[in-house]
Automatic annotation (TrEMBL):
GO BP terms: intracellular cholesterol transport
UniProt name for this protein: MD-2-related lipid-recognition domain-containing protein
Domain MD-2-related lipid-recognition: 20-145
Stored SUPFAM superfamilies: E set domains
InterPro entries: Ig_E-set (IPR014756), ML_dom (IPR003172), ML_Npc2-like (IPR033916)
Family: Belongs to the NPC2 family.
Subcellular location per the Swiss-Prot or TrEMBL entry: Secreted
Record key words, sorted: Secreted, Signal
Keyword Endoplasmic reticulum set for record: no
GO cellular component terms given for this protein: extracellular region
The organism's taxonomic lineage, starting at the top: Eukaryota, Metazoa, Ecdysozoa, Arthropoda, Hexapoda
Primary location group: secreted
Signal peptide region: 1-17
Lineage: superkingdom: Eukaryota
Length: 150
């Protein structure tokens, strides 16, 4: 009985997508975004923990490679942050699809990265974008996160 209640309690966070908003640059939004443990904004992110996310989209055009970026915003102010160099090559983290990418191809991109922040107790916007060989966005979304201490 208790096991069934726990499954019923946590299953929605694992099955349903995380709400997202379009990026200001007008790029296409993903079909679905799933952040482990987050089914409503703002997601709660613990400093030192891991952010584990899947993003599904249909490629709007062909490209040989894809670059991933994660930007952090406090209001309109961009906080400098770069994904580790190996994670910037999105082709290394595809669960479905492959590079080169064909127009109309279904892509599932998986990102698992450590959460780091200089301070806790704030809510900010995270922007995830995958760009083509020419630096043009293929897909982009924003979502809110509340940063908590470890």
């Amino acid at each position: 009985m208790i096991k069934s209640m726990l499954i019923a309690l946590f299953l929605p966070a694992l099955v349903y997508g995380t709400p997202v908003r379009p990026c200001p640059n007008g790029a296409p939004v993903p079909l679905e975004v799933r952040v482990l443990g987050c089914s409503a904004e703002p997601c709660v992110v613990q400093i030192g923990g891991m952010v584990d996310m899947d993003l599904d989209f249909i490629a709007p055009r062909a490209t040989n490679g894809m670059r991933a970026s994660l930007d952090i915003f406090l209001g309109d102010f961009r906080v400098p942050y770069d994904l580790p160099a190996v994670q910037q090559n999105a082709c290394n983290f595809l669960e479905a699809g492959s590079c080169p990418v064909a127009q109309g191809e279904f892509i599932n991109y998986h990102l698992s990265t450590p959460a780091s922040a200089p301070f806790a107790g704030i809510t900010l916007d995270l922007q995830v974008q995958l760009s083509d060989d020419n630096g043009q966005p293929l897909v982009c979304y924003r979502s809110s996160a509340t940063i908590i201490a470890a």
